[in-house]
């Protein structure tokens, strides 16, 4: 049954996509509606219990059958098919079983990259330059033409931190060599070889879970408890009111407050600050936005205080209607490093100049130094995005979806703080409490839509780039049904 808002989204999106390749062409076997019989089904329960004997399944939503998952639909082992607007925590860019990526996976180049996995730092492959230059670097953020590849988002951030520390130390050291004291003290984890230097992050930020990155993660206590942490500075991230355009002056005042506090930290913090790390939209921490003005100020301040600016695009990359969300800010000076992972499938960071390099070697290093098979996959993803203009199309889909959700929020005032306007389908809204949000997500799954949560009470939408009007229609109808069930 189509609601007024879902009809509207379908109409607009149908017009946009007429005459171009659609998800139906790419995924001829994609279901047109979800099917949910028994959920969780008997097989899912049984097979999860088997898996649980050897692997921690505490957080599993259901046992997934990836062989049966197609396009925007994820299947479970009991044959249930859900419209997936969460995409493996925002990390499947082009739908399940994407035939073009599957073809790439069968190519001799991919087979070679997988079975002959190189230790790239010492034995780089003949095609790594071509894979990087025609792939990831063809979508590099403005002003950046250098890349370092890593293994995960956390690893990307940590390697960017290391690059920042080494760059700052080299800047201060000038042409001098390491001193004998540096060489001996570093083996004892003491100064001056292991200097007291820090990475500043923002409240509610999420930058990963490894030892260094976790110290910059500030989203939820549970991620950090019991793990030793660096004593590093934290600055307030603006807590804005939504919709942004209705609270312009309040929001500007809040951002000014945060910028003032950041300035104070730069002025008075007793330890060296090598870099600031910031997400363009705080994702895990609750889909928290800030304006281009705020980020422009951060860039100006970091330049002024000789602090590097790392933009963590692990979740926003490919997700906001541009390759990189910070492209929405119109910065005068690009950030120093931009980290990526998730939808890109490969991980690493972009930079310009020499920030990511050291003259000695073996300092930014590990056995793999990335993974050519993932970099090749990233190339295939970027090509498909360009071939079908998927970022611009996601921007249109997102605008219509935002309007439809805004209409829903009028009928259901429990749906509040809708956010992500003009950020494609990187959308979220709040429900009154975390308990209600969790109940909403469970009910949606029973009704055939797999969505996610972020922060304390947000429902987050992260569909892939082949998500279109007809998918939005299904999602909106399910959301309306569940909201009616919960609130009317
Ligand atoms: O939920 C998220 O946004 C982040 C997912 C992730 O990387 C994590 O939880 O470690
Ligand atoms: N940050 C982990 C989120 C995982 C989930 O709730 O699906």
Describe this structure in words.
There is one protein chain. The chain has 488 residues and is of the alpha/beta class. The chain has two domains: 22-98 and 390-487, Aspartate Aminotransferase, domain 1; 118-370, Type I PLP-dependent aspartate aminotransferase-like (Major domain) (Aspartate Aminotransferase, domain 2, 3-Layer(aba) Sandwich). The chain contains 17 helices and 14 strands. A seven-stranded mixed beta sheet has the order 3-9-8-7-6-4-5, with helices on both faces. It starts with a helix and ends with a helix. 2-oxoglutaric acid (AKG) binds next to loops. The site of gamma-amino-butanoic acid has 4 residues, from β13.
At a glance:
With 488 residues, the chain is of the alpha/beta class. Helices cover 40% and strands 12% of the residues.
Give the SSE layout:
Layout: H1 4-17, H2 23-26, H3 42-52, E1 73-75, E2 81-84, H4 87-90, H5 99-105, H6 108-115, H7 128-134, E3 146-150, H8 153-173, H9 180-186, E4 197-202, H10 211-216, H11 221-224, E5 234-235, H12 248-268, E6 272-278, H13 292-304, E7 308-312, E8 337-340, E9 347-351, H14 372-387, H15 390-411, E10 416-419, E11 427-430, H16 434-446, E12 449-450, E13 452-454, E14 458-461, H17 469-487
Helix pairs in contact: 1-15, 1-17, 5-14, 6-14, 7-14, 12-13, 15-17
Bound molecules: 2-oxoglutaric acid and gamma-amino-butanoic acid (ABU).
2-oxoglutaric acid binds at residues 89, 153, 206, 209, 283-284, 315.
